[in-house]
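Hi again,

Forgot to attach this to my earlier email, sorry! This is the prediction with adenosine monophosphate bound. I've pasted everything inline since the attachment limit keeps bouncing my files.
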Amino acid sequence: MLGLMQQQSLLISALIEFANRHHADGEVVSRRVEGDIHRYTWADVANRSRKVANALDRLKLAHGDRVATIAWNGYRHLELYFGVSGSGRVLHTLNPRLHPDQVVWIANHAEDQVVCFDMTFLPLVQAVQARCTSVKHWVALCDKDKLPANSGISNLLSYEDLLAGESGTYDWPDLDENTASSMCYTSGTTGHPKAALYSHRSTLLHAYAAALPDVMCISARDSILPVVPMFHVNAWGIPYSAAMTGSKLVFPGPGMDGKSVYELIEAEKVTFAAGVPTVWQMLLGHMKPANLRFSTLKRTVIGGSACPPAMIDSFRDDFGVDVLHAWGMTEMSPLGTLCTLKNKHLELPAEAQMKLRMKQGRSIFGVDMKIVNEAGKELPHDGKTYGDLLVKGPWIIREYFKQEGPSPLVEGWFPTGDVATIDEDGFMQITDRSKDVIKSGGEWISSIDIENIAMAHPAVAMAACIGMAHPKWDERPIVCVVKKSDSTLTSQELLKFYEGKTAKWQIPDDVVFVEAIPLGATGKMLKTKLREQLAGYQLPSI
Ligand code: AMP
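Structure tokens for the complex follow:
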């Protein structure tokens, strides 16, 4: 027997209309690329999102067409989040930290029709635009009089000029809730980057879940600073949950340094902030020497990389701020686990509580997790046995955009490439990564790419790239190299060879020459062994 409830699609346009109707005067504050602070309300976001939708109609974009952004966290980016997806197009958030060649590859693969960019990224756009063959319009997120005179970019429009001619009313389409709404590429595995293609339904379910008390606990009383970039997996879903709940949003724009973040937290009475560990390291690095304190900040979600225990301690003991350690993936919209304690844990001594807080956390309803051994057999949740972590749920990808070859799923489960334990209370802890990647400052570096560049040098016989723990960036790559006999190659020469072949921050910190790289029976490089051989190795201070 069917239930007798109304059928209504879960749509992103409904979120922004709800925000307009129920918390129209809720504030959205942005530090702009222009240098000043911009403030307006959720009613303004809704009004301008509708203008975005009208402008895309005028540009003759079809449903499903991709509209890319290369932008900081700010109000215009927020309007694009709602206007692009709400009107049936797909918002593609591009990562400006990638090498221009990677940006070109991704934009062409996504077949972006329009690219909206902050003026900070004009040099990047100038470097890539001639090679982005599907792009019909480049839209600079600025006033018309800020457009550069001789940019060399054909079809360059001003965002403000584009919106100025549009109406603030729009008849949002009644889409199927499974329609694609946004996409994000991840370079987390080998080969070319791959994209997760989110739907309206997955985005709304994730937005409900993200706001739950044991997840990010997002409410109308919060002032939220998403430092996590809006080009990283939907800024962890915060823009959507904020529209749902009417929270105030505070956007840092390009100002991610400790001083700028601190000043914004204080000025805008931020209660909750979210970002990767590196950002918080810079913030604490600014606050400690100056003996500064937070007046309003109560909690922060730290994820994307393992959060150092000292950071959790310092936030709580020195600043009275609760750290919620979080884990997720681009393929998971991204939230999978949040580390919040259960009632029974509140009685535990501080040290035992700390042990729990360091874990990546408990599953959110909507994310099933299991760990398996090499044969795919499920392993016990005893907090000790570790295995490959697999996940399943309505906001986890089924396949990648333009998937080539078989589905990535294993009997319906998505393999995360993380190795983890799960304890009796469901707390998951990552112990290792089976994927061959390094995460530095929250951004991926493919070790295979780094090895391939080294191997292209005529004096290199073999190369293995591994990540080394780094106090600021979490991990930094080094490359271990076996030289061809009679070669006189130096570290400096090889590091110079990397220049221009990959983004600057992806170039290894060091080259270590070794006699041989340990290999397994199948010829695979044994990086764990290599790491053991390098015990005691110190990264050069750069
Ligand atoms: P991304 O798709 O860029 O969000 O990266 C997802 C990957 O980042 C995960 O599969 C993990 O390897 C890593 N990661 C994310 N959050 C954490 C965390 N809290 N601790 C350790 N690793 C993490």
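The mean pLDDT is 95. The CA atoms of residues 509 and 541 lie 9 Å apart.

That should be everything now.

G.
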